[in-house]
C-alpha cells in the first residue's frame, strides 16, 4: 500500500476499534509519528488531511517545523525523552509535550517561556515497568508531579497522561493501569482528560482502555530510514 492507503487503512481500524469499545471515533486524535522520515513526507501527510504529527527528537522536530516545505498549520507533538538543556528548543517547536516525567523538566519548560500568552500543553509520562531507567514517573508519584506543575509552572497546562506499554506485559493490562494514573491526575486537574497511549501494534487495546491520543508510526509511514 502507498501512504494514502496505509493512512486510510489505519483510520478505518481506529474507527472500528472505537465502535467496538462503544466510543465515538471523533473523540480520538491520531498522531502520525514521522521519526527519521524526511520533511517531504510530513508535507504529503498534510496534503492527505493529517494535522497532528509526532517527533521523538528535538533536533528533528525543530528542523521539520522550520522547513519551508512543511505547512505551518500542523500541531506538533514531542513524544520522546526530553533533556532539560533542550527544554527551550522543545518549547519553541512543540505544540504539545507528551513526556514530562520529572519536576526539573517541568521547571525547565516553564522557565523557557514563563510569560507565554498561551500555556504549553503537557502530558505526564508514566513508567509502567519496574525499570527505573525507562522514561516516566512512577504511578505512585504522578499526582505529586501534577501538583508541582500546577503550583510552580503556570505557563504549562496539564492535559493528562502518557505511557508506552511494556514489552513484557499485556497491553490491555498496562493501559488499565495508565487509566488509574489518569484518574489520580484528575484529582489535581479535573479537566486533564487526555490519555496518550497506543501505537501501531496496540492501539485497539489503548482505545478500549480510554485512550484519547494515539501515536501511530510505521503502520502509516512505512519502514523508517536508518538514522545517520
Short description:
With 228 residues, the protein is of the alpha/beta class. It contains nine helices and eight strands. Helix 4 packs across helix 5.
Alpha-carbon Rg, integer: 17 Å
Silhouette = globular
Order of adjacent strands in the largest pleated sheet: 7-6-5-4-3-2-1-8
The pLDDT mean sits at 96
Backbone structural class: alpha/beta
Helices and strands, in order, run as HEHEHEHEHEHEHEHEH
Low-confidence runs: none
CATH topology: TIM Barrel
- Tell me the helix content: 25-40%
What is the percentage of strand-forming residues? Answer: 15-25%
Describe what you observe in this structure.
This protein is of the alpha/beta class and 228 residues long. The two termini are 26 Å apart. Strands 7-6-5-4-3-2-1-8 form an 8-stranded parallel β-sheet. The chain has one domain: Alpha-Beta Barrel (TIM Barrel). Helix 3 packs parallel to helix 4 and helix 4 packs across helix 5. Helix 4 links the parallel strand 3 and strand 4.
Layout of secondary structure:
Blueprint: H1 3-20, E1 29-33, H2 39-47, E2 52-55, H3 58-66, E3 75-78, H4 87-93, E4 96-100, H5 103-112, E5 120-125, H6 142-152, E6 156-162, H7 171-186, E7 194-196, H8 203-208, E8 213-216, H9 218-221
Parallel strand pairs: 1-2, 1-8, 2-3, 3-4, 4-5, 5-6, 6-7
Helix pairs in contact: 3-4, 4-5
Amino acid at each position: 500500500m502507498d501512504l494514502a492507503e496505509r493512512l486510510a487503512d489505519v483510520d478505518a481500524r481506529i474507527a472500528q476499534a472505537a465502535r467496538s469499545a462503544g466510543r465515538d471515533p471523533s473523540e480520538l486524535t491520531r498522531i502520525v509519528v514521522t521519526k527519521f522520515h524526511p520533511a517531504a513526507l510530513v508535507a504529503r501527510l498534510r496534503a492527505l488531511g493529517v494535522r497532528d504529527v509526532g517527533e521523538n527528537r528535538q533536533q528533528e522536530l525543530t528542523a521539520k517545523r522550520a522547513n519551508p516545505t512543511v505547512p505551518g498549520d500542523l500541531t506538533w507533538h514531542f513524544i520522546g525523552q526530553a533533556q532539560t538543556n533542550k527544554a527551550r528548543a522543545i518549547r519553541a517547536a512543540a505544540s504539545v509535550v507528551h513526556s514530562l516525567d520529572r519536576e526539573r523538566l517541568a521547571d525547565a519548560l516553564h522557565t523557557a517561556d514563563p510569560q507565554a500568552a498561551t500555556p504549553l500543553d503537557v502530558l505526564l509520562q508514566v513508567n509502567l515497568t519496574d525499570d527505573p531507567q525507562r522514561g516516566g514517573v512512577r504511578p505512585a508519584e504522578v499526582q505529586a508531579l501534577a501538583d508541582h506543575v500546577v503550583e510552580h509552572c503556570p505557563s504549562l497546562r496539564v492535559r493528562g497522561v502518557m505511557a508506552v506499554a511494556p514489552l513484557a506485559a499485556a497491553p490491555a493490562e498496562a493501559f488499565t493501569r495508565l487509566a488509574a494514573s489518569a484518574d489520580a491526575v484528575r484529582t489535581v486537574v479535573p479537566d486533564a482528560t487526555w490519555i496518550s497511549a497506543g501505537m501501531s501494534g496496540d492501539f485497539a487495546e489503548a482505545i478500549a482502555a480510554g485512550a484519547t491520543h494515539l501515536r501511530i508510526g510505521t503502520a502509516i509511514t512505512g519502514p523508517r530510514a536508518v538514522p545517520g
